[in-house]
Amino acid sequence: MSGIGKGVTTASIGKVLQSYGFQVTAIKIDPYVNVDAGTMNPIEHGEVFVTGDGTECDQDIGNYERFLGEELATDNYITTGRVYQAVINRERNLGYKGKCVEVVPDIPNETISRLKKVANNTQADFVLVEIGGTVGEYQNMLFLEAIRMMKLKNPHDVLTILVSYLPLPKTIGEMKTKPTQNATRLLNEAGIQPEIIIGRSKVALDSPRRKKISIFCNIDQKDVFANPDVSSIYKVPLIFRKEELGKRILKKFNLTPRKKTDLQEWSKLTRMIETAVKPVKIGIIGKYFDSGKFTLADSYISVIEAVKHASWFYHLHSEIDWLSAEEYERNPRALKELKKYDGLIIPGGFGQRGIKGKIKAVRFCREQKIPFLGLCLGMQLAVIEFARYKGGLSQANSTEFDSQTAYPVIETMKAQKILLEEKRYGGTMRLGNYDCLVAKGTKSFSAYQSSGLSKNKDGNILVPERHRHRYEFNNSFRKELEKKGLVVAGLNPQKDLVEIIELKNHPFFIGVQFHPEFKSRPLVPHPLFREFVKVASGQK
User: Fold this and answer.
1) Domains delineated in the chain
2) Can 515 be counted among the known catalytic residues?
3) Annotated catalytic, 517?
4) pTM beyond 0.90, yes or no
């Protein structure tokens, strides 16, 4: 089912296979008809992750990148919309040479060709393919058919793994295997027999449950593995190693490890996570986490993980609270609660809801010297706040919120204006990697330099960072705001776009137009998050 942990399971299997010396890549198949995730509400779907080549995709691509330590591309992301679009375009261009184009086998064949393309381009030993959604759903049948067809043609090259939920009802006190039995039966109806079953559950599977799954799901008991709830998702590869899941997979492919499993750095990381007790308290003011009575942290999963990575680097335990910008609009006195936080983050987002409250929070952080990190929208709001209360432009705003503002310090990018007029929204933002030239003598420069990034011949640091935005800093106000004390610490050299702003005489006040959270890794925290946590925690 959705949210059960298929993405983390897939990424963890990849990490284990990697540790045996194999090259691994991963693909996410999402069954929705959307071409990509860019137009979907994060509250419903979770974070929109952006790859280096500019694909707006599912958050599981982020899991793959963080676990495997590799950058994935647009080909690693497949949706029903993309597959149908490709088949229809080929038919329109006589790519099928006049033949009747049918859902089966042409849609599964297009899926298979995309899987093989990734295998050929990456030269990976293993291509891990995660099918999103739930077994038995109508929208997944064509992807299951693709598996069946691949398995039929190349039985020794395809292995199917079922990730299934085993509930533990409190009123009963016994783990139930019936959902897994039903899931297996539904897979059988699609012509697929799972060869390995991984049981997601609150606690580890015991012997009676493994035996029951073995009997009723028609697999060897040795092929039933546990994936219980853990305090950190980064422990899952170590659980799989202990259960020897990797060795079992290799045996089924008649392969032997190329090297003794090497997860020493991963083990060191998990020990650091377990022993980190000194807290660093971070507040995040977002807008995509309220869903009824529930808080959905998945909307900002990369930001959360980036904070954790940086905290663990300093042997700290991150305590993250979600803060309501709308509450600050209704009750300005509530801003005083920000004093209890070591640092504040305003992440990306779109739309006007909560903007006034966020700007008030930015001002409070600036005046009270609370470490502040603004990401994309957070950077734009920091510019607006500075222009209003330090730059003398009391009506300064973004054209996103007020198209008639007298002082559009943040404005629609020129290339985006035509797209918006034509209502071309999907996949049209400034997306993916763009260069950022970090200026010497700035806090941002120190952060990148301390992380080991090399300088160019001019002594500056040039880094590619990932973007997802339509609005930008208006250079018409740049000199005026710089005279008032705003520091432009990073520029895109190709288009002279402001990428980083910061303030002097402040412990840490940095806003970035890009999304550094997408490039943070558990073993290699992003430099800006690392420096933010360092200052916030008072590390020396």
Assistant:
1) 6-269 (3.40.50.300), 277-537 (3.40.50.880)
2) yes
3) yes
4) yes
